[in-house]
Write the structure tokens for this entry.
Amino acid sequence: MQVPPFSLTEQLDALGEQLDAAVLQVLRSGQYIGGGVIAAFEQAFAKTVGTPYAVGCNSGTDALILALRGLGIGPGDEVITCSFSFFATAEAISAVGATPVFVDVEESSYLINLDQLEAAITPATKALMPVHLFGRPVDMERVCAIAQRHQLKVVEDCAQASGASWAGRPVGSWGDVGCFSFFPTKNLGGAGDGGAVTCRDEALAQRMRELAVHGMPRRYLHTELGYNSRLDAIQAAVLNVKLPHLERWITLRRSIAHRYRSQLEAAGSISLPEAGPEGHSWNQFVVRVPACSPTPACNQSCTPSADSASFGLPEACCRDWLKQQLQEAGVTTIIYYPIPIHRQPAYAHLGYGPGSLPVTERLCSEVLSLPIFPELSSLQQQQVIDTLQALCQQRSGSAAAAVAA
Ligand SMILES: *Cc1c(COP(=O)(O)O)cnc(C)c1O
């Protein structure tokens, strides 16, 4: 049996007719830009997040850009975030002319290290951008306390965390702005690109709404330079059908994570993600496969990885070996993310050398995301568990043999 990292087949079987009808209705209405379908989604989404305002836009990346612009962040400003994230987190900061300042993540949670975050604040710092990576919420009480102490804005990157909450309160409702992505593989995915910003401040919501439409408060009056970044009606129609299922889907993700955690505990030689707080939404289930040093002793067939050599990262051979073996057994895994943002060629000018963010760099060489999505069947979950257990046994067996020899 094949176990894909993500699949829409089952969801399309279940919701196909409703989705067809919703899309067809927009198609036949002729109203593709703006209109009631979008307003309805924005209202429903704001309610889910627990903020008075939600504004749809073109993508999660644009949501981050609109948030930063809306808060008046631009050239000369620093925004502190983590480098262990999708590239767009930092790209959005650069897109508004500000400078991303990277701090390391915690090894246990994979999330931004809040001690380092506070220590990195300078007079140029204007905002903090915590990332609820893999659907796990950052401690937003602490982030907000730090922000308040230093009078900084908070932009939450909630792209992977629709449906997640911290201390019983949804992510995206804590900071000044919450930024969401509806990319198809996120917890709430559309049929293409889409995103939204959420906030409590009416004037800020209005400003972001105008920025998303060419800085245009009324037709053909442009008060500032903006973007063309609307959520389109067909996407809103799809999201309207899917949103009522989000909570149930998160529950399913949680139960898969729970099963992986309890049944893989004994596998050894890989480390499992922490259970995390109750509000974890498990967009990804990310295990770690440490490389054995100094040379791959665990398995003679491990080959040094090209990325490690090219980007000055720790050796990733054992992780890469396990990924390949899983693939041969029909289990497709993904590496989020093989190269940290601060080591990307596009950010070479910022001067973060090898070893500058050691935990982030090690994680990039060790992480492997197992298949997790609401419709992943019980049999498929079992196949992931059995295959991984067998491979771990094989691996620790050959490591013992290598030590003995
Ligand atoms: C997906 C993602 C984004 C960008 O969202 P898009 O809708 O693809 O533009 C930003 N940040 C993180 C952490 C993401 O995972």
Notes: The chain has two domains: 9-245, 246-404. The mean pLDDT is 95.
